[in-house]
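Local shape tokens:
==================
===
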Amino acid sequence: MLFKTKQVYSHVSTSTDSAFDKLVEDITSNKSKIWTYSDVHESYLLHGGKGCRKAILANLQKHFTDNLIVFSAPGLSSLLVFRDTDRSVFKVLDDNDDDGMIQNISKAILKECIHLVHNTDEYTIRVDKQTGIDFVSATLMSLLESLSDDSRFKLPSITIGNIITSAVTNQPTPFQVGLGITLGKKSLIQQFHDLGICCSYDEVLRFKASAAVAASSETRLTGIQSSSICMVQAIADNFDANIASPNGLKSTHALALLMTQVCPNTEDSQEDSKIK
């Protein structure tokens, strides 16, 4: 629950308010208690007080000065806590404790990023929200989403999260690999990689080599289906590769085959989104 410290600036004179004096005695004798606004007002009325609720709180803050902290949250009764009481139940952090809070959050994010392990034997070639979210620390994602309620900030926050995950783990996330494959052009990939947004161009080359090997061993990855579905076109030709040498041994005679098939109304399946 998020509470905010509350300051009330209006107050009334308490020089002749005996009910307020008795209320102060009750609170002083039981500082370890976490007083609610309702408890304070009820105690004040029991002692015969007739002042308004806001005036009571203002006078209490004036009387106890900085030792009294008032926390408020929408829809809930305010809480009154003293700085010099036992903090085992309710811990109050001073302004100079902000650095410690930041350190705790960063440690949580670091720990979660390290445990985000992905299968390095597969490449993800699709870029979507779920792929991005799967490899972002939950704490980091909550922190980024709290910065803006605008739905348009969702994708940028996922991208930022993947950049941080990559920096912590020292390897690209599947989301970043997918972005690199989508960009395709070497110059663009290098520019975005320098910014930490996508994987390196070397990683894209590794994907291409892996895709070629996978396609040669798995027919479904070549995109060629049965000829009963639609026509298969094949072109074959031979060629000589000669390298000038005194004995002519550095030469080869090879055969190349190009096979294509274009089937109307076909879509890539989700299963084809990963190349082993």
About this structure: Residues 7-14, 267-273 have pLDDT under 50 and may be disordered. Residues 224-275 form one domain. The longest strand covers residues 233-242. The beta strands are 4-5, 35-36, 68-73, 76-82, 123-124, 233-242, 251-260, 274-275.
